[in-house]
Specification:
There is one protein chain. The chain has one domain: Preprotein translocase SecY subunit. The chain is 68% helix and 10% strand. It contains 7 helices and 5 strands; from the N terminus they run H-E-E-E-E-H-H-H-H-E-H-H. It is elongated and about 80 Å long.
Length: 222
């Protein structure tokens, strides 16, 4: 079976999009915003404690695949109910409006991903608690006063980082579906599957790297 010029072009576009998505998932999964923290020196007896510099890691994608799972569950819940109580005609009409490849479906899906990404970020990282712990242990962010100014600064950074991660997750979840609807090329792997595969591969690499460093003081990536 020979492929025409249009088929080859579609195949190339799908291949390039798949590579771009995998690279983007890897970049976002490993990306983090490091907020510098300085600890004040304290003299206790004849010893000096503190004075070291560290950082607060704030991952771009703190929630992983959870927003995608919750979003797709909610957006498909009405169809599950219709399959139980509605007629075939009603189900077909609903599919015409809210099918997986319909614009309204993708928009609602993306909005739900935004909501769950921000919700999980606020639950996983509490700027008020972090600022309080820093103040109690003598730590501070250079140029930022301790207490409420620190929590406000952390909240602002959290919103920016989470917004970037939410936009990326929404694009990963909707762009492949849009490309498949336009090109007619159906992929065997969805956005959630790609995120899980890349996350597991990266975590396995980190574990192998840490074990090699512990035993031989040299990893296989360096």
């Amino acid at each position: 079976m020979e492929l025409g010029a249009g088929s080859w072009l579609t195949l190339v576009i799908v291949f390039v999009a798949a590579i771009a998505i995998l690279v983007g998932i890897t970049f976002i999964d490993m990306g983090e915003r490091r907020i510098p923290v300085q600890y004040a020196k304290r003299v206790i007896g004849r010893k000096i404690y503190g004075g070291q510099s560290t950082h607060i890691p704030m991952k771009i994608n703190q929630s992983g695949v959870l927003p995608l799972i919750f979003a797709v569950t909610l957006v498909q819940f009405p169809l599950m109910i219709l399959n139980l109580v509605a007629s075939a005609e009603t189900q077909a009409n609903y599919q015409q409006v809210m099918g997986p490849d319909r614009p309204l479906y993708l928009v609602i899906y993306a909005l739900l991903i935004f909501f769950f990404t921000f919700f999980y970020a606020q639950v996983a990282f509490n700027p008020v608690d972090v600022a309080k712990n820093l103040q109690q242990n003598g730590g501070f962010i250079p140029g930022i006063r301790a207490g409420k100014p620190t929590s406000d600064y952390l909240q602002k950074i959290l919103v920016r980082v989470t917004l970037f991660g939410a936009i990326f997750l929404a694009l990963v979840a909707t762009v492949p579906t849009g490309i498949a609807a336009i090109s007619g090329f159906q992929s065997a792997f969805g956005a959630t599957s790609l995120l899980i595969m890349v996350s597991v591969a990266l975590e396995t690499t980190r574990q192998l790297e840490s074990h090699l460093i512990m035993r031989h003081y040299k990893g296989f990536l360096k």
